[in-house]
Amino acid sequence: MIGTWLRVTLFLIGSAVAAVTAQAETIVLRGGTLYASADAQALPDAVIVVTDGVISAVGKSGDIQVPPDARVIDCSGKTIVAGFWNSHVHFTQKVWRNAGRGADAAHAGDADALGFTTVWDLGSDPSDTLPLRKRIVAGEVAGPNILLAGNIFPKGGHPVYIPREVQLPEVATPEEATKWARDWLGMGEDGIKLFTGAFMGDKPVVNMDPAIAKAAVDVAHAQGRPVFAHPQNKVGVETVIKSGADVLAHTTPGEPSYTADQLARFKAQGTALVPTLSLFTTVVLDPNVTNRLVASTVNQLKQFSENGGTVLFGTDVGFTTLYDTTQEFQLMHRVLSERQVLATLTTNPARFFKAAKKGRVEQGFDADLVVLDGDPLGDVGNLAKVSSKFRAGHVIYQKPRRGRGTRISGTVLTLGAFT
User: Fold this and answer.
1) Residue 75: which H helix or E strand, with range?
2) Can you list the alpha helix ranges (DSSP code H) found in 223-286?
3) Using only C-alpha atoms, what is the Rg of the chain?
4) Mean per-residue pLDDT for 97-121?
5) What distances in angstroms separate CA 272 from CA 153, 301, 333, one per listed residue?
6) pTM of the model as a whole
7) How crowded is the C-beta side of 177, counted as CA atoms within 13 Å?
8) What is the C-alpha to C-alpha distance for residues 323 and 155, in angstroms, rounded to an integer?
9) Which of the given ranges, 18-22, 69-73, 152-156, has the highest pLDDT on average?
10) What span, in angstroms and rounded, lies between the C-alpha atoms of 185 and 180?
């Protein structure tokens, strides 16, 4: 699906940590309990050696030789897993405006990614995001990998939640969809997002014609790029299937369930799902309506997972302001096991997007790592309790001590102190 991956970064850390990390060629995470993958058994008192951004050794303490010049990070009492993916975010908030062109990018760290070392931005202003990407690729700041999807809307389908003054790429013909898809990919976007259904408030949903959607899908697939789709109703879901789009960017709260035929075609076509369950707790004020929306979307997740479909974690943060991922994990856990939820963050996206060196903590893999305060297999909520995260062996987030800055002492950075 995806050929060349653009490695970019957004979230900053303190300059002292960045300076020390940048100078170290080898780091060692020692003492934590490791889950090398979502289906692996726990390895207590683990040692992970990272050299030049790649995991060079993994094993139990005493079995792995620690290089004498390594920076050793004490992870005692913590749990270590592979770096997390968020497959649905938006860098559309005020903090990101002009961030690629000026010092204001330094404020990006205020929006901690809670363990995400790779994210899919499914729609933002390219005049902000693309210049930011150029600046970040140059190595000015450190953070997670960012992948971008250019949006295409049906003609007359300007959703009510997007300000009218925002110019959107609306298409009325397959030819227009083809052009927009080529333009987005040509400017450096990594995939396409189609609004197969646009929410118009008290007016009928505007759905995208399947032939128009397929024209964009054909362009993306010819270049080995994925297509996400935003359906708003059953018609929009059918367009996802008919066009061959790869990922359902949401469940569909207005529909009680997927049909047996839809599930069969999802499975045959290898369609993935990003549930975004917590999103539907924010869209209406009536708690009874909210409960119905959540019940239908949780049911769709259950159907999809039991049907063997690939589930990817995503929050739609940027559209929402729910940075805390606890609720999303808890809602998913209504139908998925702790290991299945962990897989949506790690092994599932790495496999689906063909990122061969991500999603597991193994020798030769990218050193994208998350250190958690608790065991996520004992309590799924611990997935939201991030102590630190590493992307390509560099610290890109570290939970500060309450009321104090990041502490570095000699060659040992003690993560256990940051609670």
Assistant:
1) none
2) 234-243, 260-269
3) 21
4) 63
5) 21, 11, 18
6) 0.89
7) 27
8) 32
9) 152-156
10) 9
